[in-house]
Design brief:
globular, single chain, 161 residues, Cathepsin D, subunit A, domain 1
Length: 161
């Protein structure tokens, strides 16, 4: 016997609207402390931690603090623009990629701006050359801050320029 989804009668009231802003499955975000004014990010609730395409990743110590310097290509499918960034190493974790392969990744904590709101997120650094998006915004980054509409794109609009 085939189960059909239950239909909601038209007289059932809408649930109360949340005070949380709604993002689409992809959004323009900013990473101000890394010098990235705009980057397309895929909002990925299947990914626990956010990830950023980074290359030439180099750990070093500065005044007794574990740091990392790296390069970013912020423009999707382009290697013409390069941003050089540095950050404090927050952690090193084993992260399982979408293909199921475990990889040690450096984790940094940096502010992200989405829909005009800014807060700190954990961000893993990884080569994402063959991925469609240079950044993934994982579920921990948006948890209790935003709702995701998987049918929407760029709810915050497109950046100028």
């Amino acid at each position: 016997m085939r189960c059909l989804p239950k239909r909601i009668p038209p007289d059932v009231p809408e649930p109360p609207a949340s005070n949380l802003p709604v993002v689409g499955w992809r959004e323009w975000v900013s990473l101000p402390d890394l010098g990235v004014p705009t980057i397309k990010a895929k909002v990925d609730t299947g990914a626990r931690t956010s990830a950023l395409h980074a290359y030439n990743i180099e750990r070093f110590e500065q005044d007794g603090i574990d740091r990392v310097r790296f390069n970013i290509h912020p423009v999707q499918r382009s290697k013409t623009e390069t941003v050089h960034a540095e950050a404090t190493v927050h952690d090193v974790r084993s992260v399982r990629s979408s293909s199921g392969k475990a990889q040690e990744r450096i984790v940094i904590v940096t502010p992200v701006t989405v829909l005009g709101q800014t807060w700190e997120i954990e961000l893993t650094l990884a080569r994402r050359d063959n991925m469609g998006f240079r950044m993934l915004l994982g579920r921990q980054a948006i948890r209790r801050r935003m709702l995701v509409d998987p049918g929407a794109s760029y709810a915050g609009g497109k950046p100028e320029g």
